[in-house]
Amino acid sequence: MYSWNDPDDRVAIVQMNAELRHAQLDLLAAQCATDRLRLRFSTENLARYAEKDVLRKTIGTAAALNDYFLSIQNQMPPDEANLSAPQVLQAVQRVIEYLQNQREEHYSSGTPLSARQKETLQPFFSPALLDRIRTVEMHGWRLPPPPFYQEARSLGIENLPELTHMASLTFVDVIVFNDLFVERALFHGLVHAVQFQLLGVERYTDLFVRAFLRTRAHFSVPLETHAFALESKFAVSPSVPFSVEEQVRLWIREGRY
């Protein structure tokens, strides 16, 4: 490990930060290119009509970069906590209530997965889970921000998850689609359903809230990054089966959530 008191290490640290700034600029350029794609083409059309080899390599590169920088972030010292312990517990309880209320509100109008969908997804998820899942399409409507967001912002908590812009949201065993129903977004939502199933609503929420307060970024929460990683793995090789439940159990055993 470097020490700022060592002259040779100081030189290396300066060089490291210079290279990090170059990497940041290159990644910003890549993000701009990705934004141009996102604005012009839907994920469904890219998945269906893009050159498969180029698309798979691009997804693989993005997933590898995500894993690398996440491993660094997990070793960073935590920022000063802005919330007291009672406030954190209250925040966890607010999110639990929101998840349960949304689940109850949408379950009755939800649609079971079709036989074709189950056939496609059974190499990755248990039949029992697929039988239990309900899906809801908003048909032009979008989920509003949770009622506690205004209070959270008043406490200085920014970068709250923009629910209205997410492709899908999972409320325990109900997956709500803000946009058109796409298979990849369904897979992502099902990963969260497995996490809910194995962790329970209370433990899932506690892990999510504490990780968000630590990283201040929704996409950096391990529960979310794991869902994106498994979604990417499925998108790259949809014909290669793997057990999402086994992957989630592994992360739980290793304390990676």
Q: Count the E strands.
A: 4
Uncertain stretches: none
Classify the beta-strand content into a percent band: 5-15%
Classify the helix fraction into a percent range.
55-70%
Number of domains: 2
Radius of gyration: 20 Å
The helix/strand class is mainly alpha
Span of the ends, CA to CA: 25 Å
Strands of the widest sheet, in order across it, are 1-2-4-3
Would you tell me the overall average pLDDT? 88
Shape, principal axes of CA atoms: globular
Characterize the largest beta sheet: strand count, sense, and whether it forms a barrel: 4 strands, mixed
Structure report:
The protein has 257 residues and is mainly α. It has 2 domains: 7-73; 85-253, no CATH class. The protein is built from 11 helices and 4 strands. A 4-stranded mixed sheet has the order 1-2-4-3. The model has no long low-confidence stretch (mean pLDDT 88).
